[in-house]
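Figure caption, in words: inputs first, then the predicted bound structure.
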Amino acid sequence: MDRELLKDVAIIGLGNMGLGMAKNLLAKGITVSGFDLSETATVAASKAGVKILPAAQLIAEARILILSLPKAEHVLACSEEIEVWGKKGLVVIDTSTSTPTVTREIYQRLLEREMLFVDAPVSGGPQGALNGTMTMVVGADKWLFEALLPLLEMMSSTQVNVGKAGAGNIVKICNNLLIAAHLITTAEALSLAAKAGVEPEAFFAGINKGSGRSAASEVNFPLWILNGQYHSGFTMGLMRKDVGLAQSLMAELEMELPLSQEVMALWEQSRTLLADHADFNEIVKQSDSELYG
Ligand code: NAD
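Bound structure (nicotinamide-adenine-dinucleotide present):
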């Protein structure tokens, strides 16, 4: 793939993550055009230097198109537009957390039209998108992954090619199932320690040097929970979606995973306490409303 192609990208979905990605690429000298259904999002992106175009024109002119959309259904809707307007040779990099089945279906349909589709879901939050320090788990053939690397390296500090189309979303769904569990188990462990007389700071000083540590104990609690700010930029609605994706994958594969099922039930139950727009870290309030309230 001609490296020059990587210097001009289009982005559909300029929300918390997409706008950060756009700003990061612009700061690195990449030309960025974009589209979003929300006027608030396009106004903010335009101010940042993104050339806003109507969806059809954006897709028709793009050689590299990044998607950052909420759910698989939005990615699917967008892929229908891409089928109509996309040119042969277009490479679509889907950074949304979506489903492997939808990814594979789109991959196949676009391949028949000589376009390529890569699932590259991300972690690292809006700050990681803005700083280019996300982690990407990429579902793509090796040659394509390598061809895209110069661009992926501008967007993220870690890129792992975990298999072919769909594999990125499988790994991302499993990753988010784990953080969904770790937030709850860490909150419960802290409740136990607090009731037994240990201060939260001392608890984490010990845990984070021990084998019970995780991103929840090392990042989420200090940055977004213990200070009461709950401002990670990742919503309860999106996290419940990801836990639901794990549940669907499990059902599709006819698997029973008792602890995961309990975690899924707890996230589902949180609907009565926490709105979709709440920060996903607020799940800890369900475990202990006194400690985290
Ligand atoms: P967001 O809701 O802030 O942004 C999504 C944007 O997509 C919105 O601006 C919306 O208007 C736009 N949109 C929806 N449908 C569209 C369509 N058909 N055409 C054009 N625009 C459309 O969501 P986000 O937090 O930026 O998350 C995006 C994706 O990244 C999700 O799949 C999420 O699970 C994943 N993700 C988010 C985070 C995070 O911390 N926010 C971290 C990792 C992964």
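The chain has two domains: 3-164, 169-286.
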